[in-house]
Amino acid sequence: MLKYFRGRSLGYIVKFVSVLPLALLLWFVIELGNLFRPVYIVGLSYKGRITQYMVPMELHLRNANQLNKKYTMIFVMPAATPNEAVRTVYRRYSIIIDSHFPNFIRRAFAILALLLKSRFTPELPDWQHLWQLEPATTLTDDELKYGDELRKRLGIPMDAEYVCLGVKEAAYYSSITKDKGYGQDLSHESNDSRNVNINNYLLAATHLTNLGIYVVRVGSVVNKQLPKDRHPMIIDYSTSARSELGDIVLGARCKFFICGCAGSYSFAAIWNRPIAYADHYFENSNSSRKMRLDQRPNSILITRMYSRKDESFLNFREVISANKALLTDQALKDLGLTPIPNSPNEILDLVSEMNLRIDNLYQSPSIDDGLQDKFYDCFTPPIQRRRYKMKIADSFLQKYKNLL
Question: Which terminus of the chain has fewer CB atoms gathered within 10 Å of its CB, N or C?
């Protein structure tokens, strides 16, 4: 528990500890309830961002479902609720302790989540296994009807396919300030090189429209409207019709999601829609066996690259092992590295491969398996690629095969 007090003011610590009597009372109630029905206390996160909110909920619910038990699920998320419609969906399956509750209640449950983690938080199997299970959540008839009406308003015929597009944008991070209640201040990231230029994705989007597939740009806060001369089947939902329930229903039914480092991919991943990851960067601990690489079934990934002063690239093993050391512009400057975003053509190849794979029309090159294995061998310890359902884009591996 001490790590949650590091860097905190004395006043914060006093407020936190002052709720111990309430925490002990709640502990007694939980222990009593557990005699009649198993209790899970999971999801402790002080970051009120959509991935931290949705992913632990969905995965723990899937894990509980595969155990085939009746249970009482308590999710403790002390930060602000990032999407009220998501909260409405998950309240059907769990008790959610978040910003709808007074601070002293949240602090008490935060203490419980820490003290009782080993007793009431089930161990998850490998995450890639859970992502291959059926979704734990469903949408109501009214929510599905709303989705149909939204698609009609957006001009997407009911029998037409559509793809969602969401990218990491500076405007979103400017909006995450310390007074918003999200548990962190990310406003400094608005100037970060990891922010993505959505214009690099429009070539791929236009390719899909030429195939008769609509593209819906999503995101709660975006930099600006899409160019007015874009193809009419590229829909700027974020600036024209965005709603919190709309985020859910669009993600749940899209053909796949094009993700440029944006947490909005969660709206599709929760319902097992494939993800085409571009401009990906590694930010998970090498010591973690669960999240060293995002692993969504039937998804495809390409990464951003890093150039040295002599214009040579870091190889994939160097990129993966450096991991968090490459996440800030200052660190990159100290290392003498320049981040290279994925090009429009690289993103086009990624999206084209994804679409063909979903339609069972893609023909893998004969060298595909060997290059895939070499990429997964770049992790320490190596990842057994055949246990996973995710691939690195073939065209990307062939282009950079000298870096494997």
Answer: N
Report the distance separating Cα 51 and Cα 233, nearest Å. 28
The predicted-structure confidence for 18-68, as pLDDT tens digits, reads as follows 888 999 999 999 999 999 999 988 877 777 788 888 888 898 899 888 888
pTM, whole model, 2 decimals?
0.92
Q: What is the DSSP string of 75-125?
A: EE--S--S-HHHHHHHTTTSEEESTTS-HHHHHHHHHHHHHTHHHHSPPP-
Distances (CA, A) of 264 to 79, 267, 342: 18, 6, 19
**Per-residue confidence (pLDDT) for residue 337, from 0 to 100:** 94
Q: Mean pLDDT of all residues in the chain?
A: 88
- Exposed / middle / buried, residue 190 (Cβ in 10 Å: 0-12, 13-18, 19+): middle
For the residues of 153-216, what is the DSSP string, one character each?
HHT--TT--EEEEEE--HHHHHH--GGGSSSS--GGGGG-TTS--GGGGHHHHHHHHHTT-EEE
354-387 pLDDT per residue, tens: 999 999 999 887 666 789 888 888 887 777 766 6
Look up residue 400 and give its DSSP letter: T
- Domains, the chain: 2-131 (no CATH), 141-403 (3.40.50.2000)
Single out the residue of 393, 399, 365 nearest to residue 274, CA to CA.
393
- pLDDT at position 168, please? 93
Torsion sign across C-alpha atoms 193, 194, 200, 202: negative
